[in-house]
Amino acid sequence: MKYYIGVDIGATNIKIGLLDANFKILRKKKLYTPTFSNKEDLIEALVENITLFKKSSKCKIKGVGIGLPGLVNPEKGLVYRLVNISGWNNVYLKKILESRIGLPVFLDNDVNVMTLAEVRCGCARGAKNVVCITLGTGVGGGIVIEGKLYRGATFSAGEIGHIPLNEEGPLCNCGGKGCLERYVGNKYIVAGAVDKIKKAPLPTKIPDLVNNDLTKLTPEILSKACRKGDLMAKEIWQNIARHIGICLAGVVNLLNPEMIVIGGGVAEAGEILFKTIEKTVKERALDLPARTVKIVAAKLKENSGLIGAAVLAKEGLNLD
Amino acid sequence: MKYYIGVDIGATNIKIGLLDANFKILRKKKLYTPTFSNKEDLIEALVENITLFKKSSKCKIKGVGIGLPGLVNPEKGLVYRLVNISGWNNVYLKKILESRIGLPVFLDNDVNVMTLAEVRCGCARGAKNVVCITLGTGVGGGIVIEGKLYRGATFSAGEIGHIPLNEEGPLCNCGGKGCLERYVGNKYIVAGAVDKIKKAPLPTKIPDLVNNDLTKLTPEILSKACRKGDLMAKEIWQNIARHIGICLAGVVNLLNPEMIVIGGGVAEAGEILFKTIEKTVKERALDLPARTVKIVAAKLKENSGLIGAAVLAKEGLNLD
Fold first, then answer.
1. How far apart (Å, rounded) are the C-alpha atoms in residues A1 and A60?
2. Confidence of residue A67 (pLDDT cuts 50, 70, 90)
3. What is the pLDDT of residues B74-105, one digit of tens each?
4. Which of A29, A304, B22, B73 has the fewest beta carbons closer than 10 A?
């Protein structure tokens, strides 16, 4: 049996896992990202922990895959920059790590890694043409075409969050206007909800859930309120889902995928979100691709980063 | 040398050509589509003309490629339906023609065929990730990923004309709202221009070009006015280009293509159209993919259908 190390780097946590060739997680370690004040310390911690895994496991580890929250050039093994982790500018991470740990290393951005995980081991297993969307602070996306990750001309493909929904919509921090993320990124969901609650057109118990301190509102609390049957929370989620559905109608018309996978924290809102997204896509997209596409929730949740990183390593090695 | 027959079926004309393996057109015949009152007559004319080409040429013809204006299943050789040519419902055209003419036949929709032509022999030669857009009565698109035509799960990928630009924009005849085609399809360009002229905020000589009969206005006349320096025509084209640019900003963010090819009658407006599209994409799309993408005019014009159909046949045979 062959084994792989998967690394999932996020702005909050770094997860390191040992996986077998079926991508079962055998061991797992979690580090708290803000512990590392600079990139050298973070790289040192990676080297140390990967080396420990390597030494202490009796099995033959073939390679390391790493998912990173930022812009990555997988061909060069180069990290251009990371989002919410400072000090990373044009770091040849692949080369640095390979020389230190003596194993082949493969990099990609976190959404591509999550997409790989869902397509090889998750809800989209076996599907050939898939679009993944992750809903969180940012809105990201990954694209699989004919069974292969599609990265684009400069490895930045998949930015679903920056498809414009309104030509003269609100300014997005990408410089565009009316981008999907500007409506359904975490902070915009919360800001929209606070605004709605203050205007109070509907009775709501949302303020009770944050002890009347709306600065503590999160999408998770809005989900909780929705599950409890709060009408305003329901309306808020339907509105979020409608934006996502309209954006996906465009994606469905353009790419005619067989499956769309939706993951990330916001996707936890569950049934109300998915039902409205599906309804909107059916209403807005062309008949044939709208009837064909399956819209499903990501399956692998918090382990998708580790699994996808191991898949990246395994498939990277097979390509070599 | 190997030879191919290319067929380009449109609602106005049917073109049939004999091409060599470098896709040079050696012979060409043009039929007027409305001559054929039903699909049987049209098929009969195809059989007759292809057979004539076959008999009269001394060279060895390897196969026939056909581009059709509608929804086609290239794997089954099945035409689901055609736009603006009635009577075509679920016609197994490949099988019918192969049994009559004794040559392998390959089908695809006209925009995919045009895309193939530009990527193999036109302005996008050698490019691996390309999006083509055709501007005319409808707005269509073709996608090439890693050098191969991408058709989607049910062969309907590429419908750029039905990407929504405004969530509550005007109703499109596809059932969606605010689709690109609803702003830049021929009849909407003309309707918008007539409206603008009637309100007359700018001096214009457009009415003179149609003897004051605005029902005769076409995008071609608007292009002509623009080339003559008419300020209103210029503003109209800039507005059209802005819609296209905003849509393409989303496509650039999603697909990060190396090249976007723009063809079709409307693209003849030329420099003013392309300049504004480029400017809008740079303003609205993410920096890296916006800087990377080349936006170019289709090169092959009226022969792209014949050339692409021959490419389709040649590549279809190589795959067999």
1. 8
2. very high
3. 999 999 999 889 899 999 999 999 999 999 99
4. B22
CB atoms B254 and A141 under 8 Å = yes
Helices (H) and strands (E) in chain A, counts: 11, 13
A-chain CB neighbours of B170 within 8 Å are none
Q: How far apart are CA A135 and CA B103, in angstroms?
A: 51
Helix (H) or strand (E) holding A314: helix A304-319
Instruction: Share the mean pLDDT of chain A.
Output: 94
- B176 contacts A249? CB cut-off 8 A: yes
- B176-210 b/e (C-beta count within 10 Å ≥ 16 → b): bbbbbbbbbbbebbbebbeebbeeeeeebebbebe
Phi then psi dihedrals of residue B3, to 5 deg:
-130, 155
Identify all chain B residues contacting A246, using CB atoms and an 8 Å cutoff: 164, 167
CB-nearest partner of A156 from B153, B163, B286: B286
ipTM: 0.95
Q: Strand B148-150's sheet: what is its strand order?
A: B148-150, B139-145, B130-135, B259-263, B294-297
Q: How would DSSP label each residue in B161-196?
A: GGSBSBTT-PBPTTS-BSBHHHHHSHHHHHHHHHHH
pTM (2 d.p.): 0.95
Task: Name the residue among B129, B165, B285 with its Cβ closest to that of A153.
Answer: B129
H helices of B28-86, where?
39-56
B42: exposed, middle or buried (Cβ count in 10 Å: 0-12, 13-18, 19+): buried
A163: closest CA of chain B, how far (Å):
4
Scan for tokens 């044939």, then name that residue. Answer: A288
Neighbours of B6 (CB within 10 A): 29
Tell me the CA end-to-end span of chain A in Å, nearest whole number: 19
Specify the amino acid at residue B261: V
Beta bridge partners of A32: A13
Q: Which of A71, A128, A284 sits opposite B176 (nearest CB)?
A: A284
CA B179 to CA B169: how far, in whole Å?
8
Element at A274 (helix H, strand E) = helix A271-284
Rounded to the nearest angstrom, the minimum Cα separation between A276 and chain B is 15
Say if residues B15 and B8 touch (Cβ distance below 8 Å): yes
Q: Could you tell me which of B73, B71, B94 has the C-alpha nearest to residue B81?
A: B71
Average pLDDT over residues A263-292: 93
Window 172-231 of B: residues touching A by CB (8 A cutoff) are 174-177
What whole-number distance in Å separates Cα of residue B211 and Cα of residue B222? 14
* Cα-Cα end-to-end distance for chain B: 19
Which among A320, A319, A310, A269 is positioned nearest to A121, based on CA atoms? Answer: A310
Chain A residue closest to B176 (CA)?
A: A284
C-alpha separations of B138 from B184, B188, B271 in Å: 8, 10, 21
Chain A contact present for B152, CB below 8 A: yes
Rg (CA), chain B: 20
* Minimum distance, in Å, between the CA of residue B319 and any CA atom of chain A: 16
